[in-house]
Amino acid sequence: VYGDDRQCPPLTLIACPLENIPIQKDTFNCGVYIIYYAFTIMDSSKFSLEFDPNIHRENLKTYLLENSEDMTNICLYCNCHSDKHRCHQEDECVEWVSCSVCCRWIAINCIL
Q: Where are any strands of DSSP class E within 1-112?
């Protein structure tokens, strides 16, 4: 039962035609496995039973950091570049604060 007392429809298992698919053995790496499955199928390559989600997670992190836009001068609150923030007439400049968790910057006038 879910939602407004609705029942889930009956499901039928479908046999997977793929072989040697690594199986998730925990409750927290599902996203890493799904990404691995998707890339493996899209590349028409073979699955590896030697798949290690921790190593794959590190590889994903490295790939994303190396191929993502530099966020140094992007406001965490509004996603605008620092050049887009305008000073109010009475202000001399826009003040910024740094997030203590991710170390990204937020323009004060975005949160006031």
A: 96-98, 105-107
Number of H helices, E strands in the chain: 3, 2
| 64 and 97 co-located in one domain | no
**pLDDT (tens digit per residue) in 37-56:** 999 999 999 999 999 999 99
By the 10 Å C-beta count (0-12 exposed, 13-18 middle, 19+ buried), 36 is classed as buried
The single-letter DSSP state of residue 92 is S
| Residue 64 shares a structural domain with residue 14 | yes
**Number of domains present in the structure of the chain:** 2
Q: How far apart are CA 31 and CA 14, in angstroms?
A: 21
Cα–Cα distance measured from residue 35 to residue 41, given in angstroms and rounded to the nearest whole number: 10
For 87, the domain range is 82-111
* Confidence (pTM): 0.56
CA distance 99 to 109: 15
